[in-house]
Every structure is written in structure tokens, then in C-alpha cells.
Amino acid sequence: MDLGIKGKRALVCASSKGLGLGCAEALAEAGVDLVMNARTDGPLQEAAEAIRKRYNVDVVAVAADITTEDGRAKVLEAAGQVDILVNNAGGPPPGLWSDWERDDFIAALDANMLTPIALIKALVPSMMDRGWGRVVNITSQSVKAPIPVLGLSNAARAGLTGYVAGTSRQIAPSGVTMNNILPGIHATDRAASLDAGVSKQQGITVDDARAAREATIPARRYGTREEFGATCAFLCSQHAGFIVGQNILLDGGGVNATL
């Protein structure tokens, strides 16, 4: 399917690996030029070069911490005018509700709610002026079904979801759509870290920890970055202009809900 976005320009945050990289690859395959961002320069440059060679698109790589004011300023200066924004940032650490203090919540809000909002405010007005734009926020299945040990993420991402619900309807008349993708467990470094934690806690192998988690997913496997990226690219396409303010679950059926 021709997504109709060849020649568009996208900023994809946290895109040197994992789900962000999957989104960058899928957009590049559709002919979109990229501004890629991540904290660590080496892996970011490697990912950018691989995409340039494979898809023959223009790629600007900006190493910066997108969750800081200085980092955002650096990325936005390099990005210039973009048509597509993919918001993404690593989730807060797991823990116990009784251990989290104000500073823990502020850090989670800064990374997973206030950073995407700041980027939306910086980039969406020019999209509206041009009459076309796409924003995709990578959140979490925990927005639909809270995960007890990820309470910081539950709170911050739910806050962003509320903001997007209202804002998406206000910008839609200008031809700009904004939606969220809610990943369940995917085969990424985050999943490996969580499995390693269970392995250590329960005294089992990492493979056994993964197998036990996979058994809780109706699809009986982890998702891949490629299928996640394909969904992101579709939401950014010319075919998705009537999808506004939605929360798209990619969790293999993990959230047991009718709606």
C-alpha cells in the first residue's frame, strides 16, 4: 500500500532502538525523511546510517536528552519544519507505590507527559498552518489496564492521554491528526530488563521468565518492532485522516476488555 507520505519529514524521538527505531524504519520505507533522536550518539548514528543506506532517505541524527529543556531545544533547532511527530521516551523504573516520592512523580511527568506536550506545542502550530500533520504518541497498555509495579508510568501516561483526548479534537479541523499507540510487551531492551528482574527475583532463568510472560499474552509471543512501526506509519499516512484522538492497543490481546 502506498501510504502517500513520500517526501514528508518526521521527527522520531528515542529512535536508535526498540519501538522508536521500528517507527523510524517504517516511515523511511514509506519515503519519509527523518530527524532521529536518542541520548547516546554512537548507536543513534549507526541506526541513522543503516536507514540511509537501506531506504535512501535523508536522515538527520541529533543526540540529546529529549526530556530536558536544553535537549528539546537542540532537537527542535535541527528538526526545523516537520510534518510528522512521533513522541517516545523510556518509561520510569518499576517500584512499589509506597516508595515513590514527589520527585519520582515529577521526573515521570517530565519524561512521559510534559516532554511530548512541549513538542506538540512547538511543532503542531506550523502543521496547522500548512493544513496537514500527524502526531503519534507512544504510551502504554497501562493506560487501559494499570500495571501495579509501573505506577509512575500509569500516572504520567494517563495524564498525556487526557491531554491528547482534548487537544486532538481541537487541531483536527486544520488537517492535523493526533493519536496514541499503546504497546504491550515487545521484544525490546525494556522487555529484556523486565524479564531479567523477574529472573533475579524468582530465581529462574531469563528464558523461563520470558516464557511465563508470553503465556499470559493471548497471542503467546512478544510483539516486534517491525509490526509496531507499521502501525505507526499507517497512522501517519494519507489513509488515516479520519482517525482522531484514538488509543490503539498493540498488546497481542493482553488487555481483556470489550471496548
Automatic annotation (TrEMBL):
It comes from Litoreibacter albidus. This is 3-oxoacyl-[acyl-carrier protein] reductase. Belongs to the short-chain dehydrogenases/reductases (SDR) family. InterPro entries: NAD(P)-bd_dom_sf, SDR, SDR_fam.
